[in-house]
Recover the amino acids of this structure.
């Protein structure tokens, strides 16, 4: 929905812990792309390797950096290692939903005022 | 307390909000069904909404624009997917370009509203679902810049009043 201009809560909290690790992990374009691709779906390392002009081992190294930063999790399923962007995605989704909640709470307040028999002062 | 429950589902990218109003169901339905009522609550005070087309039947459309303090206009639309007055309404909500044409490159949100009356009070359950995290962020981020202006605008109104 259009929530343009709706007060959307406090700015995101500054995360002081592990910022350096995070910045390093996200300083590389391939790693940023991996994070983006794995937000919606789990992707295997081999599938990711096909997407980049580099070796399987090189992609695996990038994934390891992201994993250390807590940006993705890796899970073994059969012969595949599945990568998923988890903590970061969850954090971002929470923030966005918090702001959407604030917008709707304000809407509900306005609805309530319209329904009140006497306009509130 | 009007809002009685909020459920944020991170996995399904949805927000469910339950509110209760001290009014019969028909009056609450009118807040959605009467365009002049709708435009009094949809946009915040500094960004009042003006509703143009308004057809709450399945396949029907609602088009509106919001006017900012600097005169800037943001257009949006709903496409009604189901309606059962005065009990439920479901629609896709999206952005439009300056001509009011729905923009394909912008996110849409599925909104479902259910109303039920209990002892003269009406409960409204609103569920807003996003197709992807990117869309969810995009929808809320578009409002981020104007939020500051809005806060300032409301402070002014309070001081003036």
């Amino acid at each position: 929905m259009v929530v343009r201009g709706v007060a959307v809560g406090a700015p995101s909290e500054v995360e002081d812990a592990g910022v350096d690790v995070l910045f390093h992990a996200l300083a590389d374009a391939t790693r940023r792309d991996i994070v983006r691709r794995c937000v919606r779906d789990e992707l295997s390392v081999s599938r990711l390797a096909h997407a980049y002009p580099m070796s399987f081992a090189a992609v695996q190294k990038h994934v390891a950096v992201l994993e250390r930063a807590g940006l993705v999790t890796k899970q073994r399923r059969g012969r595949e290692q599945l990568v998923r962007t988890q903590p970061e995605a969850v954090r971002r989704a929470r923030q966005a939903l918090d702001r959407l909640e604030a917008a709707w709470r304000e809407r509900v307040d306005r609805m309530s005022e319209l329904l009140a028999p006497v306009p509130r002062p | 307390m009007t809002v009685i429950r909020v459920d944020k589902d991170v996995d399904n990218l949805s927000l469910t909000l339950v509110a209760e109003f001290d009014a019969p169901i028909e009056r609450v339905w009118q807040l959605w069904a009467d365009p002049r009522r709708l435009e009094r609550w949809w946009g915040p005070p500094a960004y009042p909404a003006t509703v143009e087309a308004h057809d709450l039947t399945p396949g029907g459309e609602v088009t509106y624009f919001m006017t900012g303090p600097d005169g800037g206009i943001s257009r949006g639309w709903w496409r009604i997917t189901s309606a059962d007055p005065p009990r439920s309404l479901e629609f896709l909500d999206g952005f439009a370009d300056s001509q009011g044409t729905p923009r394909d490159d912008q996110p849409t949100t599925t909104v479902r509203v259910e109303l039920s009356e209990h002892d003269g009070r009406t409960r409204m359950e609103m569920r807003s679902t996003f197709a992807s995290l990117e869309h969810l962020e995009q929808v809320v981020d578009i409002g981020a810049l104007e939020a500051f202006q809005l806060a300032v605008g409301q402070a002014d109104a309070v001081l003036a009043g």
Notes: DSSP finds five helices and three strands in chain A. Chain A touches chain B through 34 residues (CB under 8 Å).
